[in-house]
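## Example record

The block below lists the input lines for one assembly entry, exactly as stored, with component labels intact.
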Amino acid sequence: MTTALYDLPGPRSRRRHLLYGTGASVILLALIGWIISLLFDTGQFTAQKWTPFTYKGIQELLLTGLGNTLKAFGYAAVLSMALGAVLACARLSDHRAVRWAGTVLVEFFRAMPVLVMIFFVYVALKVEPLPALVTGLTLYNGSVLAEVFRTGVNSVERGQGEAAYALGMGKTQVMTHVLVPQAVRAMLPTIISQLVVALKDTSLGFLITYEEFLHAGKLIASNLDYDLPFIPVVMIISPIYIGMCMLLSWLAHWVSRRQRRNPKVEAAEVGAAEPGTLLPGAGPGLPKPPHA
Amino acid sequence: MNVLLDNLSLYGEGLLGTVELTVYASLLALALGFLIAAFRVAPVGSLRAFGTVWVTVLRNTPLTLLFFAVLLGLPRFGLVLPFKLFAVLALGCYTSAFICEAVRSGINTVPAGQGEAARSLGMTFPQILGDVVLPQAFRSVIPPIGSTLIALAKNSAIAGSFSVVELLGTYKTLNELGYSIIWSFIWIAVGYLIVTLTISALFNVLEKRWGVAR
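Predicted structure tokens for the full assembly:
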């Protein structure tokens, strides 16, 4: 495979690359070794710090935390898709006032940090942590998803809608029977990527004392009886958290790869799990114009 | 209105904190992001693997978890720095993964024929990189980098909960002073809008100047 940067390597370049590769590997391995020795030197692998994880109570605490994280994610995912659908309808409306209101809401919620919304709901409206977290996540991800749905509908070939109108279908029929099914199929990878953002952001609940996964970890980590096992806690929590997000990202990639083989859909490029944008044409999930 | 006028210095401090965090973390993220992007397109397998792991892990890490691990974890190794520096480190590393992907996909948009033509003219690797590939990649990379930096500015709000002075954290002081919570939040929102819209405008200018003519 040649790229714009390199030609296929000949024997001399291959030898040189092997040399670079060995050098880089040695440096990276040394780095990893240094980190591991640092962990040992600061006594992170003592039995005292790891025994708590064999206790049933602690395991249950972690599992409850994980359950609460998934619960918040479930609510936020369902509600933000619903809100996204409503806002997308508003933005695609034939009435100027509705369209305008939809645009203002979507742009405002996308421009605000999620945390500001969560804190606002939590502090100013004085609700429980879970509803506050879910509301904040829903408002933000809902408006990003609204943009995804809208671009999806707009990206369906124009002839499809025109043909449907020509057959005498009403706008609702055209939407539900022709445009939305095609749009959702093309946008599925982007929608899943956005759900990864929602899953990652459930950890913001930690900051408003929602008893989620990180909160459980913090409780264990601040226990003096086990010599403050902070690093062990991080070493247990992060693989689970990152693993869940990776699984969902991988699902998005899998769907998009599958669709690329499917002649019926021109799958949109999978956007990274990153938040929305204020720049026109630079959206994470928005399908990019095909480059030559 | 009173909330703003009475506490102008408090808000100013908060806004300045947010701007500082954003600027420093952006610089770190850009530097690291370009470096990792170079790793990811390198012909050396181990560097590519390192870049891939870096990007995959950081993109799937909740930022709160990263803050948690960096701000509360690194001191356990005897690394004691001001919290603000830790926050810049966490934000910068997190965002570098997104910058890296933007840069890499920018480089990938340059057709292989461009490089082949340059090589057949006898250009050396630095020449190809500096005169042919990067100028083209740079143009298509401006908008995604802009949106990544806007996201960074918004993410900096998390630092406030880890006792770093920034805009969102001002609500606590105002709340204790007994000001209307709704109004204090409205002015916080305005502050964030100022920051994000400034970045957006800046990148719109860059895009107009150097962007791809489509």
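Chain B has a mean pLDDT of 89. The radius of gyration of chain B is 21 Å.
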